[in-house]
Every structure is written in C-alpha cells, then in structure tokens.
Design brief:
The structure is a single chain. It is built from one helix and 30 strands. By secondary structure, it is mostly beta strands. The strands form eight sheets. It has a five-stranded antiparallel sheet, with no helix packed on it. The chain has a five-stranded antiparallel sheet with strand order 2-27-28-29-30, with no helix packed on it. The two termini are 23 Å apart.
C-alpha cells in the first residue's frame, strides 16, 4: 500500500499490525483483539453498514466526474478518496481487499456506497485493509474470516497511519511511536518503514535506525534485532522485500537530497554492483531529490521540478520500463509529475493533463476497463 507522494516528500511506511502492542500474524484474524468472534470488532454490527454490494448506477462507475482528492495504491488494488470523502476502488479484490461488498475484480474506478467521509485508506493484499474516518478505525479484506465490507475496529483518533507490506502491518501513531514494531526501543519516528524482514525509522534529529532480520545486508553495516544507527543525516527511508526467494533492501533520502541504497543488488540502483550492507549513492549523480518511495522490489524518487526516476526489479515487467523486467540504474520517466504514487507493480502520477497510470495490468490495476498488459500508459479519471 502506498499513498500520495507530492513534492513535499514522503516517508514510505510498512510493517506489522499491533492492537494494544499485540502483533497479529500475517493475514490473521483480528477478532480476538476486536472483541467479536466474526471479526466485526468493538461490538460493531456489520448489518448496520450500508450495502456496498449494490449495483452502482452509471454516475458511480468510471470516476463519474468525481475529483481525486487523495490516491491510495495497494499491491494490485487501488482506491481514491474524492472531494466529498467517498471511496472509488478498482483492481484485484482477493477476499474483499477493496472492501466493496464482494470479492470480484473491479476493472474501473467504482464508487463504494459505504457511508463515505473517509480520510485515509491503507490497502493490503494478504492481510486486512484499513481506513480512517471521523476518528474511527475500520477494517476489511483478507483474514481467517474475510470481510467484504468495512467493519468498525475502534478508536483511531490518535493514529497516523496503518502501514504495511504484503505480509504484515503496523500501527504508527501521531506521536511517532510504533509500539509493536519498534524493536523494543520506544523511539518516536518522523519517518517509518517496515517490510517482511526488517524495519527502519528516522527520528526528529535526522538520525536513521534499522533493525530486524538481516537479508542481503539490508540492515546496513551492523545487523541487529534492536535499532542500530546508520551514520548520516536523513530525511526519509523506505524498505523493500521479496519472500520467495528471500531478498531485501533499504533506500534512504538524506538531508542534502541524495538517495542511498543497500542490500540486494537487484534493487539498489547501483548499476548491479553488490554493495551489501554499505549505504551507497544510487547511480544518479548531480540529481537532488525531494521525495522517495519504496514498494516491494522497486523504488522511485522525485525532484522539485517534477522529474521522477525509478529503479529496481519487476517480476512481471512494465513498472520501471514498459515490458522490461529490471532497471539496475535509475531511469528517468518521460513525463514530469506534480504528484506520484507507487503500488506493488504499478504507479500513477499527476501531470498537467491529469492522472495517468502505468505498469502491470493483469488484474485491472490501471483502471482502464481491461486486463491487457502491454506496457501502456493509461489516463485515470480524465
């Protein structure tokens, strides 16, 4: 799951979900923490929710003239929130990951009739998805008991983000703490990222720490289950991982605008050179970056002028370079973007002409009404 990345910068955040600092197993059922055997949570009655499975009218399909206020990309499914707080969702919908009342693939952005007033959305793949509205946390999607529509978890008024990768999630609070994911440090982070194997965070003093299970040197020079500082002054951080085979990497943006990466050489943007646990500048000399995003096996970073560079691997092709499975060095995208968002195998950017998406489309990720996967760039809601 990734959210809108504007020119002001973005901290990529992923990790393991914890209710009351209790971590859930990946894809696990939150009902034990939620207080309901059916996963409805905190006494919420799913029958009181509006029926999100109702067939929408024409004005609710294909954007319907709505305006994208914030865009939330998942691994293979996506949603945006419009100007009045309604959700519009599309893409793969395994076990109801989109929370639209059914588990069928949705090929075009379609309005979800679930009461609206959403503030943030956090889409997952093998685990629950979450949303915040009016200070409350809601959940839906895969689990021991799949939830096809949102149900109430409880109070979310102090929550900043629910952040996660394919297999795990974290609760990141407004005070910067991540109680279930901080390696026991109690640290507060301005930027936080976590993947299947490891976590990293940037504190308010610009110090960067990483911890967890080391794969390919992704923890940096010193591997530890407890937070260890990575020398330097840092603005944001992102981590990526692949489970089969097990691979991991880390990229971080320093305060001068340079991106450094370390870990598996397929993903570090260092022209294929294996830098292992040594933080190394990506192969983009003299470029000053304003923001960084990392998701799954690839990364993108953007400049104040709207130039976007992407690098890494793409098992299915089409993300970094159309129909090409890898970019060992950063590739500058053809367009300039006002805002940008990265999903599991696809991305969307806002140009002067509106939103456009590109990458893998086998499950309708691009929202163009097809599953044609030919490297096309598709306009979104324009």
């Amino acid at each position: 799951m990734r959210f809108l990345a504007g020119l002001a910068g973005l901290a990529c955040a992923c990790g393991r979900l914890g209710f009351d600092a209790t971590a859930l197993e990946p894809g696990g059922d939150a009902s034990a923490q939620d207080g309901g055997a059916d996963g409805a949570g905190s006494g919420a009655d799913a029958s009181t929710m509006p029926d999100a499975s109702t067939t929408p009218d024409a004005s609710a399909v294909g954007c319907g003239g709505s305006t994208i206020a914030s865009l939330w990309l998942g691994h293979r499914g996506n949603c945006y929130i419009d100007s009045v707080g309604d959700r519009w969702c599309w893409g793969e919908n395994v076990d109801g990951v989109l929370g639209v009342g059914h588990d069928n693939t949705v090929l075009v952005p379609t309005r979800v009739d679930d009461g609206g007033e959403w503030d943030k959305i956090f889409l997952q793949y093998y685990g629950r998805s979450y949303g915040l509205r009016d200070g409350e946390l809601w959940e839906w999607g895969p689990g021991a008991t799949p939830l096809l529509s949102p149900v109430l978890v409880g109070d979310g008024s102090t929550l900043k983000e629910v952040v996660g990768d394919l297999y795990s999630q974290c609760l990141w609070y407004q005070d910067g703490t991540v109680p279930a994911c901080d390696g026991g440090s109690g640290f507060s982070f301005r930027a936080f990222a976590a993947g299947t194997f490891h976590q990293c965070g940037v504190k308010d003093d610009n110090s960067l720490y990483c911890w967890g299970m080391d794969r390919d040197g992704a923890l940096g020079p010193i591997a530890s289950a407890n937070p260890v500082e990575i020398p330097g002054a840092w603005r944001s951080v992102g981590v990526g991982s692949r489970v089969n085979p097990e691979r991991a990497f880390t990229c971080a943006l320093d305060t001068s605008g340079k991106v450094w990466c370390w870990g598996n050489p397929l993903y570090t943007g260092t022209a294929g050179v294996n830098v292992a646990g040594t933080p190394t500048p990506i192969d983009a000399p003299n470029v000053v970056f304003e923001w960084l995003q990392v998701d799954w096996e690839r990364s993108c970073a953007g400049t104040a002028a709207g130039d976007v560079y992407c690098w890494g691997a793409d098992t299915y092709g089409g993300f970094v370079v159309p129909l090409q499975p890898a970019a060992p060095s950063p590739v500058k995208l053809a367009a300039t973007y006002l805002e940008f968002a990265v999903g599991g195998h696809h991305a969307c950017g806002l140009t002067s002409e509106g939103w456009e998406c590109f990458g893998w489309n086998e499950h309708g990720e691009l929202g163009n009404g097809t599953t044609v996967n030919d490297g096309q760039i598709t306009g979104l809601c324009r």
